[in-house]
Amino acid sequence: MKMIIALAAAAMLLAGCSASGAKEEETLRISAAASLMDAIGELEPAFRESHPDTELVINYGSSTKLRAQIEQGAPFDLFLSASHADMEKAAEGGYIDTDTVVPFAENRLVLVSAHTVDGEVTDLLGSPEGNIAVGQPDSVPLGIYTKESLAAAGLWDGLDGHLVYGKDARQVLTYAESGNADLGIIYQSDAAISEDVEVVGELPASGTPIIYPAGIAEQAENPAAAEAFLELLTGDEGRQVIRDYGFALPEDGK
């Protein structure tokens, strides 16, 4: 009996040593703007290949909603925002390491339709017919940018009663693609990946550049992996993917 107990104890000790010697899988949590879904998805395989022991968990949504989740305690290591304002608020709240914040992409607004539409953007929006899908103007960066652009051009108030609101950029795209809205105002990057909508034209410049900043969490659980993903995103491969998916690089507009 003593021999059996001794052997069992030795086996447990060896198992414990083996477990402690094994490399534990870590998790990298990214909160990313919905409009980045395809571009980030393109970069995922490269990151997984170079970090096979890191589980990649990505939460997509409106940047404003993601910031609210962050402020409410949702775990994250890296924030990829479609809104400089939301990144700034998160940083001011102490959730982002300000030394890590870097712009990595830019975008612009376009009017699209699932059908061929003739006419100038300002004419179509100045005398609207049918429904127009836009982002929520009070809580979604796409909607905020849209309202600012159209208000500056004197077109916003005339759209009352014609607007269909989406909770994020991808829902607005879906409304336009499905024909549930006759027109849609979306990011150029979303128009570039869609086979179901045609670009009617670009919206008037609003004066506020649509800049996408990235920032690592002040209390990141996996800062090394977050830094590695950010290096991938802002390196040669990431920059090419950004352009391939219809975004511009910050220096392209200079």
Automatic annotation (TrEMBL):
Family of this protein: Belongs to the bacterial solute-binding protein ModA family.
User: Corresponding gene?
Assistant: modA
Binding positions (molybdate): S35, S63, Y187
Instruction: Write the record's keywords in alphabetical order, separated by commas.
Output: Metal-binding, Molybdenum, Signal
Q: Where is the signal peptide?
A: 1-22
Q: Which InterPro entries match?
A: ModA, ModA/WtpA
Species assigned in the record:
Bhargavaea cecembensis DSE10
Origin superkingdom:
Bacteria
Q: Coiled coil located at which positions? A: none
Q: Biological process (GO) annotations?
A: molybdate ion transport
What's this protein's name? Molybdate-binding periplasmic protein
Q: Which Gene3D superfamilies match?
A: Periplasmic binding protein-like II (3.40.190.10)
* Molecular functions per Gene Ontology: metal ion binding; molybdate ion binding; tungstate binding
